[in-house]
Amino acid sequence: MLKIMLRHISLLTLTLLILSFFSFSLAYLFPGDPLVNLTGIRNSSEQGYALLAQQYAMQDSFISQYWQYVNHLFAGNWGLSFSSGLPLAEEISRSLAASVELSAYALIFSFVIGLPLGFLAGLRHHKFIDFSLLSASVIGYSIPVFWLALIAILIFSIQLGWFPLSGRISLLYDIPYQTGFILVDILLSDVPDKEFAFQDALQHLVLPSVSIAIVTCTIILRITRRSVIEVMNSEYIQAAYARGLSPRQVVLRHGVKNALIPILPLLVMQFTTLLTNAMIVETIFSWPGIGNGLIQAIYQRDFPAIRAGMLAVSALVLTFTITIDMVIQIFDPARRRPEHATS
Amino acid sequence: MPRLNLYQEEFYPSPIQNTWKEFKENHAALMSLYCVIFFIFVMIFGPLLAPFDPLQQHIDFLLVPPAWDNNGDISHLFGTDGLGRDMLSRIIYGCRMTFGISLVLVIISMLIGVSLGAMAGMSKGLRSSVVNHLLDSIMAIPTLLIAIIIIAIVGTGLVNSMWAISLALIPQFIHQTRDIVRQKMKKEYVLAAQLDGAGKVHIFFNSILPNMAEMLVVQVTLALSVAILDISALGFLNLGAQAPSPELGALLSEGLASAYVAPWNIAMPGAAIFLMMMSINLVGDGLRSALRYRLLR
Predict the structure, then answer these.
(1) Per-residue pLDDT, B13
(2) Diameter of chain B by CA atoms?
(3) Is residue A296 pLDDT above 80, yes or no?
(4) Which of A99, A90, A144, A135 has its CA nearest to residue A117?
(5) Which residues from B are below 8 Å from A313, CB to CB?
(6) Torsions phi, psi of B247, nearest 5?
(7) Under DSSP, is residue B175 helix (H, G, I), strand (E, B) or coil?
(8) Residue B268 pLDDT greater than 70, yes or no
(9) pLDDT tens for each residue of B131-165
(10) Which of A25, A276, A333 is nearest to B140 (CA)?
């Protein structure tokens, strides 16, 4: 177990180092002065520039510049945004929280819908309900998420007027920033009309999270279905039937557990697909998340924000997947891969 | 099979025939194969099929609804957009662009990915271990995110987004090829070839490549749907193809301006992307299950 943890931690450190090195070299790859791209401070006085250059060791070698950059990163000094002039570390942590909130609700939603339907389809393999669910899932995962979101806006917020068009919460409510998760913030805050604010935030959440969830939900359905079919065809299920267990007992005692084990990692890996979809949907619904921020930064050629945003998103994704991989390998010895170097 | 009873000769279908027979049984997959062929046809003969030039502005026909609407006009089957450009022609050119570009990108990244993957799969030792682990981690980052990052560096534009997407697709091919090559290297027919003194290149092209061609085709269908989604998403976000060009995602984002008065301007291009993605996904699914079940019957 220690070996697995050690291997994953070293892998994580290595990839994060490479990522940070890449994000550092972005400052050189982007047009303009590397120092300005790193700090985000434009039009500084000559003295200020010299001071910054000293802080970032600009006259030293590339490696020591990188070292200084990493130090700054750990100190929480990510530079300033060109467009807003605010510190990026704070801006990004806010927008990342908004994105994670949206994706988390979508993920929960798609689990709640996708898993049971997947089991249903898998247990009724090659029956009518299986075929209809499967066809529905093909439609679901072929729909481009941006089109789905647009159609949802056209129907539910413009034609029917059930849900708000964009944003996170109505401007009537001023929720103080605490955790970054709007629902939690509302519950923690002491604004008047708390329940109305909560309801309003929920209404804002429905359309974006559902349009993200539909795509993820169908993928979860398909993975679950495949796994259930494989498990139900296996010999120990036959043996359980032979021992005289009723179908319900077989499924609940043997089927569910064995079908869930191999798919959990696959399901969790859907988080990255989810995050991509969330990034697109954010721009449509003007959700103040990292995807929206990153794309606005590209439009406005806000190089420090692109650098920091890219680092934050990819670090989040990598940390998440490597950690999950580690946890799975610790708890499920069957999935431990042979070590690559030995094969 | 009646054929066996009628004639006293034995008929063994080849693996490809087996796959095709299994594939034919799946009506949805067969229909979508025809659909894909239709899209390829549109891609090749698009300029001959399109009634108008995609950029030509018909000033007398602004925001005409599709032909089946009461206010529609038969000369513009799918209606026109806010500048009076014919939607049908724009969608035909858009399919040509989106589908064609995706196809080219997938083929390029397949060639690069397979050759790198073969090298990674056949090498051993620390270097391959490091490369493999890094690759696994890169795989975890969604292609669209990689594409956005690359576009952030090189700037927006169709050609840049093409580079970005093909770079982002390569890791999946490397990963897949590496795994298959690993598996096949342990087979006895590879050992036999090695004992005969065959070199690595010879083994790859004569023993491994024919055995992984089918998996490669499945992977291509997967990559194709990813590429179509990514290129239209980038076009939609104004990071890829820029406004006047009839790329399907760019069409969609242009339709946004008049979405309330002219919903067909976002319905039609989106439906085209959807149909394209669905037929490719169904062909991929059908192919996969045909490969899985072809020996069971």
Answers:
(1) 75
(2) 76
(3) yes
(4) A135
(5) 145
(6) -85, 145
(7) helix
(8) yes
(9) 766 776 677 677 777 788 788 777 788 888 888 88
(10) A276
d(CA B113, CA A154): 41
Q: Determine, for residues B274 and A26 on separate chains, whether the beta-carbon distance falls below 8 Å.
A: no
A21 vs B: CB within 8 A: no
Q: Quick one: closest CA in B to A29, which residue? A: B153
User: Tokens 């890996």 — which residue?
Assistant: A269
Distances (CA, A) of B17 to A256, B25, B30: 37, 13, 15
Question: What's the gap in Å between the CA of B182 and the closest CA on chain A?
Answer: 9
Q: Is residue B17 domain-resident?
A: no
pLDDT for B193-250, tens place per residue?
Answer: 888 888 888 888 888 888 888 888 888 888 898 888 888 888 888 887 777 788 888 8
Distance CA A27, CA A42 (A): 14
Size of interface A-B (CB pairs under 8 A): 118
CA distance B125 to A340: 8
Q: Which of B236, B252, B285 to mutate to test the interface with A (most CBs of A within 10 A)?
A: B236
By the CB < 8 Å criterion, does A57 face chain B? no
Q: Is A159 exposed, middle or buried (0-12, 13-18, 19+ CB in 10 A)?
A: exposed
Tokens of B119: 């090298």
Q: Which ipTM was obtained for this model?
A: 0.80
With contact defined as beta carbons under 8 Å apart, do B276 and B98 qualify?
A: yes
Task: Give the domain CATH number at B181.
Answer: 1.10.3720.10
B288 assigned to some structural domain: yes
Instruction: Give the 3-state secondary structure of residue B171.
Output: helix
Burial class, B292, CB count within 10 angstroms (exposed 0-12 / middle 13-18 / buried 19+): exposed
Residue B64 DSSP symbol: P
Q: Is residue B176 part of a domain?
A: yes
- Number of domains comprising chain B: 1
Q: Provide the CB-side half-sphere exposure for B174 (13 A, CA).
A: 21
What are B73's strand-pairing partners? B76
Instruction: Give the distance from CA B97 to its chain's centroid.
Output: 13
Sign of CA dihedral A306, A282, B105, B267: negative
3-state helix, strand, coil in chain A (%, to 5): 75, 0, 25
Residue B278: inside a domain: yes
Any CB–CB contact under 8 A between B127 and chain A? no
Which among B178, B210, B208, B211 is positioned nearest to B190, based on CA atoms? B208
Question: How far apart, in whole angstroms, are the C-alpha atoms of residue B81 and residue B56?
Answer: 11
Q: Tell me which residues of chain B, numbers 183 to 222, contact chain A at a CB-CB cutoff of 8 Å.
A: none
Determine whether A261 is exposed, middle or buried from the number of CB atoms within 10 Å of its CB (0-12, 13-18, 19+).
middle
Chain A residue with CA closest to B133: the answer is A11
Q: Which of A138, A145, A343 sits opposite B281 (nearest CB)?
A: A138
CB distance B134–A158 less than 8 Å? no
Please give the residue range of the domain that contains residue B270. 41-296
Written as one string, the DSSP assignment of B30-44 is HHHHHHHHHHHHHHH
- Residue A138 parent element (H or E): helix A128-142
For residue A101, how far is the Cα from the chain centroid?
Answer: 9
